Amino acid sequence: MTTLTDTEPKTPDLKTARGARRLVRGPRAGRQLHGGKWTYVALVLVTVMSLFPLVWTAIAASRSNSRLAETPPPLWFGGNLFKNLEFAWHEANMGTALLNTLVVAGTVSIGTVLFSTLAGFAFAKLRFRFKNLLLLLVIGTMMVPPQLSVVPLYMLIAELHWTDQLQAVILPTLVTAFGVFFMRQYLLQALPTELIEAARVDGASSIRIVWHIVFPAARPAMAVLGMLTFVQAWNDFFWPIIALTSSGNPTVQVALTGLAQGFDPDQSVIMAGALLGTLPLLIAFLVFGKQIVGGIMQGAVKG
Amino acid sequence: MASESRTAAPSPTGEGAAPRPEDTPPKSDARRRERRSRRYRLDVKWSPYAYIAPFFLFFAAFGLFPLLYTGWASLHRVELTAPTDMEWAGLHNYSRLLSDEFFWNALKNTFTIGIISTVPQLLMALGIAHLLNYRLRGSMFYRVAALTPYATSVAAATLVFALLFGRDYGMINWGLGLIGIDNIDWQTGDWTSQIAVSSIVIWRWTGYNALIYLAAMQSISHDLYESAALDGASRWRQFIHVTLPQLRPTILFTCVVSTIGAVQLFGEPLLFSGSGATGGANHQYQTLGLYLYEQGWVNLHLGRASAIAWAMFLILLLIGAVNWLIARRLRKSEGDS
Fold first, then answer.
1. Residues A239, A123: one domain?
2. CATH fold for domain B92-336
3. Contact yes or no for A177 and B146 at CB 8 A
4. Could you tell me which of A116, A138, A70, A151 has the C-alpha nearest to residue A224?
5. Which pLDDT belongs to residue A25?
6. CB within 8 Å: B216 and A300
7. ipTM, 2 decimals?
8. Is the residue at A142 inside a domain?
9. For residue A207, which residues of chain B lie inside 8 Å, CB to CB?
10. Which of A73-77, A121-125, B38-42, B323-327 holds the top average pLDDT?
11. A43 within domain boundaries
12. Could you tell me the residue ranges of all domains in chain B?
């Protein structure tokens, strides 16, 4: 008893000191020494290395094909950008490709977020039979690459005559095991079980609980998962290359591949195509970069 | 896992929720209440299945079933031109694979490209994360910039790198020429082409891994560094003796993810030069993923492609097993200390 009263005044002290430090240094203070001059030099170098190939894509897209076959290579923009963009737009069917990719990535993101949230909620907070076994199945197949299922999927779409149709690339990627695991991990902490119990006691049905409690609580993670899925779906390569053709109904990546493997490819036009296909995501990165960075770091700690 | 599942729902018999005078319950009211509680019990019992059903429906149809059916297809002779005509072939596809020099070549290339791309990538990511972990002005700018290559597609990245690595007019050879190094043939050389292909992977994924390391570094308790500093440890020794051990699970995680990525490498070698699915004129950078594609969609042998897929599956299982063993070891050694 005496020991308890002895330690009691100390504990809040320590807590407030920690809390104060946390306020100053941000929520999870790791080692936060100030960066010196060389830190900045190195980081600027990293930034240049990261951005240079993209900037040079634009430079090459603004030049002519013959200029790219000269030394030294161009280091600044030329005047052919719009001509090359126009050429790539028509040659590679880019209008259709961009629209298709938007539809595919949008649908896949919405589907993944919705289904992953529902399943993640069930795995995090509800009781049902075979729960642990099913969760193990989800985790076990989280990292299975697309190559392992590509032959039967191809047989399937050949049988259904789905070649060059968007559902052929949407349906197989509509759910991911990663999404379910990600939402489960988030909801385990973010959704107080008492809240669900209280709603149950008040006689709320499961659907009302999902709509009024689970979705609002899950919203930050849903946004992150949506963005990550969108980037992934936009850049998806292996399966679309097989299911779609560049002359038929391509996504951006398929169109770009067709452009690059076409007869007598013009390098500056290829670069213009690459620029067209990358620009939408780069703009999204300018706007949502902070959230995407936060999402990846959050996923890393929880995963 | 068991503890949180147990608290999920209140007991279905909890009818005391509605406190009402019990002495004069009208008959219809009682029946309604009973119906409601039955519906409630059904809801609690069956709604979890409704929530997981959409996921598992798609997962079974487009994930699990194809995965298993690939194994079945690998025991057959199947041509791309008539994918539903399957002719039983036993283990022929596998025995053929074992005596196929291109398979072994692809396996070897996958392994060497995997090493060349993964090791520098993770080391550099560790260094960049260390830099980003300092208090910086404009830190978010550097983080977003480092992640930008992640937003670039395989196709776009590979096509621009193919130009940069051009033998005669490429930027990289020009730069090397300035410091007196002769033009290197990045397309046809055995090692040089593998280094070039690996550099695309490194460029795209280093920033992503750096952010994962950064997240782990920021969750290391400050007190650990304080006590290390009190013991007189230099910054470098703090990095070696505090940061690295604390990062061990994260490092293992990134190793596994990168290795799995390396096993399925496909787009980079496909688009790096005009030679398509052969992976260079002498197959010098043809990976397993690319060889599978060549067998299935260029040579039209879906059965053989399936056998290659299951060979990849075997490799992944091996990686999984090694990962599990190391993780168990790590947990044990942490338990000891």
1. yes
2. MetI-like fold (1.10.3720)
3. no
4. A116
5. 44
6. yes
7. 0.84
8. yes
9. 47
10. A121-125
11. no
12. 27-59, 92-336
